Amino acid sequence: MPTVSIEDGTLWYEERGSGPPLVCIHGGWLNNQSWDEQVERFADEYRVVTFDLRGHGRTGPTGTRNYSIDLFVDDLERLLERLDIHSPILCGLSVGGMVVQSYLDRHPNRARGAVIGGPLQSMPPVDIPPVMKPMLSPLPAITGIVSTFGSTATFQSLLASVRAITGRRWLTVDPEVRSKSLAALDDVSPDEYRKIFSALYEVEPPNLSHIETPVLVLYGEQEAPMVKRQGERLAATVPRAKLGEIPAAGHLLNQDNPRAFNEACGAFFATMAPRGSTHQPP
């Protein structure tokens, strides 16, 4: 697995196939293996790139004291530069979708297209005035819990709290997918868990009404209602956005129902004008 040097660490990535570049960005506390079904489906037609965000998977811990979505976007830009990719299709899930949104905000017409799955815009997925966020921050409690009980138990408590509020198995409807996602937490140290959670909580959603990139927003049928509402708002804001629901799927919709997710993405990709991986947009 090749690497790219980043601030205080090394970014691990994989690529497979050839054709227009398709870059997939995983969700929080997961890793690039969460895209295995999409790699298998699209590598015959696309140059599929997956990577582990800092703090996750084989990239692992970095010396940076605090993470942010903007920092993750910086890493994405460095990866694209290293791979000589100027016009990618971006596909992000959850935290990865936040990274995609911030990238599009920086570069309104650079990406060929974008898929945003499990469309979080903020954490928690409700509107909190920026002035109130520091006062309501759960970070001190999260730091204490994760230091005492570890990353996996802390994440399981988050799942339990969301289920208590929504009455749904929000993360996934498939026990095997749930086990796989919890196993990915074995690679996340308590301090890295805290830094990742901080990046989610402190992000301010960008207004994407100015972007020119076509966007597909997808959420699972069993997604938390608050996240669905954020997805609907996002799709209503982006000028060239489409909105879709994946049946029999929760937040990890690309793993819960990969066939339906891949079909939706494939149909969306087919609507895009051909652009080569080295094409520099105007």
TrEMBL record:
What are the entry keywords?
Hydrolase
* Protein name (database record): Alpha/beta hydrolase
Gene3D superfamilies in the cross-refs: alpha/beta hydrolase (3.40.50.1820)
Q: Does the keyword Manganese apply?
A: no
- Single annotated GO MF: hydrolase activity
Q: Where is the signal peptide?
A: none
Where in this chain does the entry annotate a coiled-coil region?
Answer: none
InterPro entries hit by this protein: AB_hydrolase_1, AB_hydrolase_fold, AB_hydrolase_sf
Domain AB hydrolase-1 intervals: 22-264
